[in-house]
Amino acid sequence: MHSEKQAPVKYYIGIDVGSASVRAALVDEFGTVVAHADQPIQIWEPQPDHYEQSSADIWAACCSVTKKVVCGVDASQIRGVGFDATCSLVVLDKKFQPLAVNCEGQTNRNVIMWMDHRAVSQVERINATQHKVLSYVGGAMSVEMQPPKLLWLKENLQESCWEKAGYFFDLPDFLSWKATGVTARSLCTVVCKWTYSSDGGWDDSFWKMIGLEDLVKDKYEKIGNHILSPGEPVGKGLTLGAAKDLGLPEGIAVAASLIDAHAGGLGVIGADVKGHNLPCENQPITSRVAMICGTSSCHMGVSEAPIFVPGVWGPYFSAMVPGLWLNEGGQSATGKLIDHVVRGHVAFPELQSKAAASAQNIYTYLNSHLDMIKKSLPVGFLTVDLHVWPDFHGNRSPLTDLTLKGMVVGLTLSQGLDELALIYLATIQGIALGTRHILETMQAAGHHINTLFLCGGLSKNPLFVQMHADITGKPVVLSKEVESVLVGAAILGACASGDFASIQEAMEKMGRIGRVVQPSREHKRFYDKKYEVFLKLVEHQREYRSIMNSF
């Protein structure tokens, strides 16, 4: 007998630029992460609500991690590269050199981060126009989108930055340009963060109305007049220079990119769920929401027809899954909030030393500590008298009010490790209650959601996952590969290579289910009551602010 020669495995590279680090993965055609590497990147906070980065630092980290994951791999088996990144704003001059986005003139700091809130007055003025494009961002633009940041640059750095600028890139598009030399933009970035319409293009009247008519004059060259769908090949693939930087052969296919949360959605939302007894089995993909939980959280739901949800971004056509409309809810601080609450507590040094002594990370230790102090109660019931409103960095969805503040109700004079564990639990519950608020708003507008698909760093925390299942009342699906955002980026590279007929085909074959977490139905009444309290908290905050504003 003769045996057929087995075809070599095909590989794709996913590169993900998060808020604090760059990660790369080598992913095979079945969605398995074969190799993974990460490297921190620098964040500057020169003043409150100003967050900046360096595009040179970010690209150097991309090159470093990519070289690590392809080490020892036959380059002929690597078929495509996909990038995703935070929706931060990169500013370059007419010769593609970095321009300072700060008053100090530090040109290496040429990126305004997504979470930068410097443009508050600009976004208020933009929203006051009530321009029709705002109906596609939930009725009000977020300070985290690009038009208010552009307006801030024009009004505050006219000579040093605005007049010298040649190109304003969303960070995912900067990366595809750096790799290919082509200034094409992704439909994902320009539709979701810049007000581009997939059927009508740019709206001249909007840019003129908000005082950025300069962008219209050059036919939008500075912000993009060549738009590609996510996963489409960009140019002729990797340039010789980029190939050397990344340790890859010249000409490998490079995909039009995605925002990081959207890549996470791509990596999980289309997975085959047969045999898992889930309510979304044999249902369209529109019954699912992908929740990407890291520094912040995003809630991605798709629909066949446009659904306008108050306070939720979108609908955006083909911004994540081709042919479907995307709505995107979000919470501006989730992982960052949990870290803030835990590390700022007086008992944190004790937690650190006890976690280190037991060779556990601090959150694993806190979870086990909660199990120890719960006695006969379910863990979640420990917060019957402790409630957190989690908008310490404003509310993105569904209230779109960046002036809202965090609230904690139920504090005592105790300051020990038990109290730290309880405030940690109440914070996670507050975040999950915020997710329920977003989902209920989406469902009231016309979405039909029955299953959550979680990915991102917080999905590794079993307490975070269980609280989301219990509080929303919906099963939570975790992917087999924890690094779903990287799988999503690799899916883009797979599509650009031509190895899959469509993004949908690649999603189904490369996205794989790992574990399903079911909600505890017997706890429903408790969490319904917690949700009542949750909604009362924001009512009270608005009431006391109204009282003080009359002073």
UniProtKB/TrEMBL annotation:
It comes from the Eukaryota. InterPro entries: ATPase_NBD, Carb_kinase_FGGY, FGGY_C, FGGY_N, FGGY_RbtK-like. The keyword Transferase applies. Residues 290-496 form the Carbohydrate kinase FGGY C-terminal domain. The keyword Transferase applies. GO terms for molecular function: D-ribulokinase activity. Residues 11-267 form the Carbohydrate kinase FGGY N-terminal domain. Pfam families: FGGY_C (PF02782), FGGY_N (PF00370). Keywords: Kinase, Transferase. GO terms for biological process: pentose metabolic process. GO terms for cellular component: cytoplasm. Belongs to the FGGY kinase family. This is FGGY carbohydrate kinase domain-containing protein. It comes from Ceuthmochares aereus. The gene is Fggy.
